[in-house]
């Protein structure tokens, strides 16, 4: 008995199945319309589900590294910061951050380094909050000056003012610009205009040639209820100092002085309202 050739058997089977199967058309891959993030946000190695842009670090629970290691980490971070290597600053400081007890300098320096990287808002906010919460006696004036800048970068004006006040206590002899800087920050904090004016007056005492300190202090006090009399003294003193020197400013200054003076004048007395039957004679 002759057996069909393998090729013939294959042909018969294909014919029985309806011919050669046609492969499906390739599926078109749709291109994403979302921009590609070429710098993905680094995840927490201890918790890959935490995103530093929206999730703060977990509550502190681990013990702080030994004092010698902490000092070495801070020194290495200072060298890396001087070299402009913020990534290295973060790398050497993560082991001492969020530990018990807290290292204010470690967390402050880490926050300042992380603040320069996009996508770490929650993490930066967390470490800034903890860095400004305590006044570290081991932190110098430069630390608090840089911390104030980082806080301002996160729109934390009130905390930045605290940092600048701590900086002042560490300066052997603060200058006019130091006081004026604090005043400038306080002017961005609601209900702190009076303090801002006082720091400007201190700045003027340090540098009497900066007459704008006197003017700005007067303008600030004129906005504080109950301080118009002090504002008027400062503004009039400023007017007398610039008379003949800055004539182009005199008109606007006189208008402001008049406005402040009007706040001190009592409101004109008004006649009492006459009710029904007022001034009527009594019946006989």
UniProtKB/TrEMBL annotation:
Entry-linked InterPro entries: TPR-like_helical_dom_sf
Alphabetical list of Gene3D superfamilies matching this protein: Tetratricopeptide repeat domain
SUPFAM superfamilies: HCP-like
Basic and acidic residues bias locations: 35-57
Top-rank taxon: Bacteria
UniProt-annotated stretches for the region Disordered: 22-64, 259-284
Name of the protein this chain belongs to: Tetratricopeptide repeat protein
Species name: Nannocystis pusilla
């Amino acid at each position: 008995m002759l057996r069909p050739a393998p090729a013939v058997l294959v042909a018969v089977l294909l014919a029985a199945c309806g011919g050669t199967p046609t492969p499906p058309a390739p599926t078109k891959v749709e291109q994403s319309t979302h921009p590609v993030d070429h710098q993905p946000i680094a995840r927490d190695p201890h918790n890959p589900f935490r995103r530093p842009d929206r999730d703060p670090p977990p509550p502190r629970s681990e013990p702080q590294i030994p004092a010698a290691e902490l000092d070495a980490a801070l020194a290495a971070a200072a060298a890396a910061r001087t070299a402009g290597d913020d990534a290295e600053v973060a790398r050497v400081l993560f082991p001492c951050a969020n530990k018990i007890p807290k290292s204010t300098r470690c967390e402050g320096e880490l926050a300042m380094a992380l603040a320069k990287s996009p996508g770490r808002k929650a993490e930066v906010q967390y470490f800034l909050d903890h860095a400004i919460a305590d006044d570290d006696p081991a932190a110098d004036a430069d630390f608090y000056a840089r911390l104030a800048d980082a806080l301002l970068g996160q729109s934390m004006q009130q905390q930045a003012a605290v940092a600048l006040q701590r900086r002042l206590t560490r300066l052997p002899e603060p200058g006019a610009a130091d006081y004026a800087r604090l005043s400038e920050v306080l002017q961005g904090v609601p209900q702190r205009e009076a303090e801002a004016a006082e720091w400007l007056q201190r700045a003027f005492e340090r540098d009497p040639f900066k007459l704008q300190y006197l003017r700005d202090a007067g303008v600030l006090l004129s906005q504080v209820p109950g301080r118009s009399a002090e504002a008027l003294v400062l503004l009039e003193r400023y007017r007398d100092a610039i008379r003949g020197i800055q004539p182009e400013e005199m008109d606007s200054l006189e208008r402001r002085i008049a406005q402040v003076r009007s706040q001190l004048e009592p409101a004109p007395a008004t006649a009492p309202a006459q009710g029904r039957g007022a001034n009527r004679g009594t019946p006989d």
